[in-house]
Amino acid sequence: MSRVRRRGRSTALRYAAGDVYMSFFPDMARNSLVARGEHVRAVGWLHPAHPYATGSVAPQFLARLKEFIRQPSLSGDDFCFPGIGGVHTCEFCGQAHGGRNLGLPCDDVLFVFPDMVVHYIEVHEYKPPDEFIAALLRSPLPDTEEFQVLSEPFWHLHRAQQC
Ligand SMILES: [Zn+2]
């Protein structure tokens, strides 16, 4: 079970005038900072001004997610994501930094998420969508040939979008 946490209104107001809204996308949205389209499912693009699902996740999932993100090959490159550049600092606590965006192919869908998602889970009780958890648990790791094969159609799709 997941519940939705609502943040205080003062937090929303504090951020309302900033330029940080661009990093927020609802879970399972068809767009994200680096990719958009009917095949896209956004995961973990959180922002303090918006409520998000919370709850515990299985240790097995968290371990696999860390392993996935730790892979030497940049998963984002597998999908022809545009380079966003710069370091992203956690907007909830200011204590963690990320900067990579990753893709997780699952059939004809591509989950798109920032590396900061691990921090959100561990520190801010974020619970990703069940579809994402299931897809990650059965996905090959990014530095495998199997992963490359699954990724290739999306790479071509994004390259075509940028032309
Ligand atoms: Zn944080």
Overview of the structural elements:
- It is a single chain.
- The protein has 163 residues and is α+β, with helices and mostly antiparallel strands.
- The protein has one domain (27-162).
- The protein has helices at residues 9-16, 59-70, 117-124, 130-138, 145-162, and strands spanning 3-5, 40-42, 52-54, 88-89, 97-98, 101-106, 109-114.
- A three-stranded mixed β-sheet has the order 2-7-6.
- Strand 6 and strand 7 form a beta hairpin.
- The longest helix has 18 residues, at 145-162.
- The chain is globular, with a radius of gyration of 15 Å.
- Mean pLDDT is 85; it is low at 6-21.
- It binds zinc ion.
- Zinc ion is lined by residues 90, 92-93, 95-96, 119, 123-124.
